[in-house]
């Protein structure tokens, strides 16, 4: 569009002020009129007289917009902006930074124009679509990379690999291209690199191997590719690393992490090999040539997420990672090899200890969350190591980081769905590796099972259960520095209350699976703070627990419970046994009906056992409630 054309636009008066549509509301009419008035005002601006720096800003913003739309628009849209004004065209042509982003799949003539206009500035080389299937196009792209290797600052390649793989290692054309044009050269100015394979399946048997020599590289994204661990160049400035959509394993990734001392953010998404693939895939992929790493020194690490590693890989990473005090580390979707149920408790317990032990000394709080998936016997176990100081409200408080572990499809429930999900944890606590812990939080996050068409009864909740009092006590005895204990979402915590009572002490004289300990050692002598959130208990057993703690000189200083479980008389008894008593409303709205069901079921069972009519609606007398508590206490012991 010429300057005369611009004048025509500025003299455009096809605007009727006060236009109002009777079908539109007053707000809509006002906004429309305001928009039209602003349009008229903008057209009065002498566009052709704008200074060059404004023209340059307009051009840069316009170009950036079109670049962000590369996935949705075929053309770049240069004709639109170049036709607006002759001075704007001149500014665009003479601004080198506008021409520094070059696509490898452009026609050669267009690419040469951009290259000339860039005038030696660092280049951002990319692909708008993909390359790979056209041999001539691939050769031209590789030639351009080789000719400008000294000025490339950013490299983004979208590749469409052939569907046919070569020996399970990837496309022959892609492998050849990466080797000839990427792996054999040094990129002295390359700061950002990303490689995407748009034609590949989500997870290959193995990812492509690629070699990059870029000493100032800061960001690296690899899709269906992995850097060759036997031929790694150091990356002293690399801060961001993302690897996804491939099958890899810890021994293949750890050498890369070892050459990135400045790494801050790292995300690795892999998939466990199928069952018909040998677990020791490194034996035939690298033939024993993988470097042996003794330690991972990543002091700047902030976030590390590795999804899909097996538990042995998690052990290796946590054992080597020694100096990352402020990192948030997570291992979602860690698969546990599914042994038979009769063999699972032992191996899982041993592996759990090997996972927790290397890093647990860096934290003082352990959170354990058990989730029953899809109302079945399968469970998802989550463990978090963190610091109690992280909850500090102080401005400028520096978090100490955390470690999140998630073990999916662990069949730690028995066939009838009534197993003890915390058995593996409490069976290894007597080994003494967690004696420093100050806080323990046990959570049951099992959702309510929806009612199926075949079920006549309403939705129910298949909750987890706490281990036996004897096993709980055997574990708590080796937490001498514990000061805070939280339980959330449990349908019955009586086993825990009993474990801290005198009967619980007496019951451990040989009934805890042969775990040796001193029967005169009181559990958790520093523990004064208890929180039972959305967790149910028998009031009489709670009172006996509080009386026992007071009798041995360890009076509870803080007790938080969910309301609706205590009447006024019982509240007064509890308040006399603790320094600070708090009743909170239920966080889970289902807790109220759980309380009613739980109390009613116990009442019916006890009433029936004592010869009382089981179906009566009359509430139990206080004496009957006391007998109920004592009977239940006797049963759980």
TrEMBL record:
Composition bias type Basic and acidic residues, residue spans: 9-26
Basic residues biased stretches: 453-463
UniProt cross-references to InterPro entries, sorted A to Z: LRR_dom_sf
Chain positions covered by the region annotation Disordered: 1-30, 445-464
Record Gene3D superfamilies: Ribonuclease Inhibitor
Protein name: F-box domain-containing protein
Protein source organism: Sistotremastrum niveocremeum HHB9708
